[in-house]
Amino acid sequence: MSIKENLKKLEEKTKEAEGLKSEIQHQKGKLTARERITLLLDEGSFFELDSFAESRFSQFGMDKKRVAGDGVIVGFGKIDSRQVYIYSQDFTKIGGSLGEAHAKKIVKIMDLALKTGTPVIGIIDSGGARIQEGIASLDGYGSIFKKMIKASGVIPQITVIVGPSAGGASYSPGLSDFVFMVDKIGQMYITGPEVIKSVTGEETSFEALGGSEVHSQKSGCCHFRFNSEENCFLEVRRLLSYLPQNNLETPPIKKGLFSDFFEKENLELSNVIPDKEEKGYDIQLVISEIFDKNSFLEIHKDFAKNVVVGLALLQGEVLGVVAPQPKVLAGVLDVDSSDKIARFVRFCDAFNIPLLNLVDVPGYLPGVDQEQAGIIRHGAKVLYAFSEASVPKVSLILRKAFGGAYIALCSKHLGYDKVITWPSAQLAVMGAEQAVKIIYRKEISAAKDSKKERAEKAEDFKKTLSCFEAAKMGQVDMIIDPKDTRKVLQEIFSSLKDKREAKVSRKHGNMPL
Ligand code: HXC
Predict the structure, then answer these.
(1) CATH for 31-240?
(2) Which residue has a Cα nearest atom 9 of ligand 1?
(3) pLDDT tens by residue, 245-292
């Protein structure tokens, strides 16, 4: 046969195989590895690498199947005209399982991404370590994890789970900056239901064990959850539009042509805080008033809802926002929300994204459960992350900032560049009601009418918590009218643009983990 005839035959065979395989994926409600790349990247921008790579184990008869490409498509392309490296696992080839050649392909594009300062996106649809290849497949994971850790804080790493992510496959998401999952098809676990049953006797399903709901609400392993692959890929594109390509760049500026014309006072903000001190309100109202219209991209939306974190634009400039949510558990900090904040702050700091805290926080959550779950260890992460962050960091106190949460989210001694407040703000070790019960315990119990005595003492004590008292000590830099919030924040962040902070020389700190 001539070369031409050979090529034609190869093309026909490939088409035949791909056609059959795509049907299998579609029947499972999933797209194929290649369709996913096409959907995610700018049209026609993808270039595949290593499409002929094969496992050396097939030559030894351990796996006789033809697996050109070894179950993963890798290459580079563009999103909004900016380069990304990408890999997409092909479940139709040996279950997308990871063998030696498969791993080498992923490591190769990660090396290229590191050299060129380019984000990496991994699309996971895999049965985990390829059993036939023994420790060669485990070593494959080892090499990927090592590379991911080297790339951490240098280039953004995103993982999308659109199939099983079993065993070793789960630590790539575990090491990523952001994990996206799609309902019903994305399932992530270290050991599957069968193994669990044989070891512990527990009965469970793939979905209950590692579905998107569980990972976005309970484990916190998933940052973004979607009902379809199409919506998921759109949001990956949106997230990348907020991020720099690497740690040496600043985030892109997304200012609209006529943004300046639409500047406005935040009149709504004067009415956000309820008259009753203990009443909750939705911090999203404050966020949507302050930032550019519809620009808030919430991260970890369904996890630890007592704190909201995400990226938003202020006159086109990207900021990382950390905001306790007064309408959920009064916005108190607990074990999960501490982890959520610390991880987010570390990401922003690594990628030059300035931080803004919108603070209305009663403190860390009291309780036996929380103490035993390690609120000291987890809460310390928030202190560590904020203290170490060298990007511009600003705290705006809306209503209250009490106790350890005050230190973590607003203390100038932790290194905040500016602490500003609305006039309603109170800063204290604890609320007045709690405080007088401790410091006036004897007087209150000796009084004829203890309830009245306590209320009077609390009213009196409250005056000492006012932000005007803190401003006298220099702990608050500015007290602003809520309606000027957006304008003032723009000026403050602009004044901090050239912030420089010297680093101490050490191998690395020992962050509480
Ligand atoms: C080799 C695998 C494989 C694997 C799946 N396949 N997983 N081949 N190694 N790890 C193959 C199957 O043999 C099958 O081949 C094809 O892929 C499709 O798999 P099915 O089971 O038919 O698909 P489905 O019913 O959809 O089930 C998907 C699945 C299941 C739930 C992921 O395949 C499964 O449980 N796989 C094993 C998952 C696992 O335990 N992985 C951990 C590996 S250990 P044929 O030829 O029949 O089409 C590991 C190291 C742990 O990762 C390290 C911890 C850090």
Answers:
(1) 3.90.226.10
(2) 130
(3) 999 999 999 877 666 666 778 889 999 999 888 899 999 999 999 999
How far is it, in rounded angstroms, from Cα 88 to Cα 33? 5
Burial class (CB in 10 A: 0-12, 13-18, 19+), 479: middle
What rounded mean pLDDT belongs to the chain? 93
Write down the catalytic residue from 168, 331, 363, 431: 168
Mutational pocket test of ligand 1: of 89, 97, 161, 195, the residue with most ligand atoms within 8 Å of the beta carbon: 97
The per-residue pLDDT for range 192-235, each reduced to its tens digit, is: 999 999 999 999 999 999 999 999 999 999 999 999 999 999 99
Exposure class string for 415-443: b at 16+ Cβ within 10 A, else e = ebbbbbbbebbbbbebbbbbbbeeebeee
The number of the ligand 1 atom at minimal distance from the alpha carbon of 128 is: 52
Q: Is 168 marked active-site?
A: yes
Which one-letter amino acid corresponds to residue 491?
E
Q: Whose CA is nearest to atom 29 of ligand 1?
A: 127
Q: 97 and 60 in contact (C-beta within 8 Å)?
A: no
Q: Which atom of ligand 1 is nearest to the CA of 138?
A: 50
Class of domain 259-425+466-495: alpha beta
For 314, half-sphere exposure in the C-beta direction (CA atoms, 13 angstrom radius) is 21
| Ligand 1 first shell, C-beta below 6 A | 94-95, 97, 127-132, 164, 166-168, 171, 190, 192
Residue 336 to residues 170, 187, 430, 435, 485: CA-CA distances in angstroms? 20, 21, 22, 27, 29
Query: Within the chain, which residue ranges are assigned CATH 3.90.226.10?
Result: 31-240, 259-425+466-495
Ligand 1 center–CA 396 separation, angstroms: 50
Instruction: Please say if 404 is a catalytic residue.
Output: yes
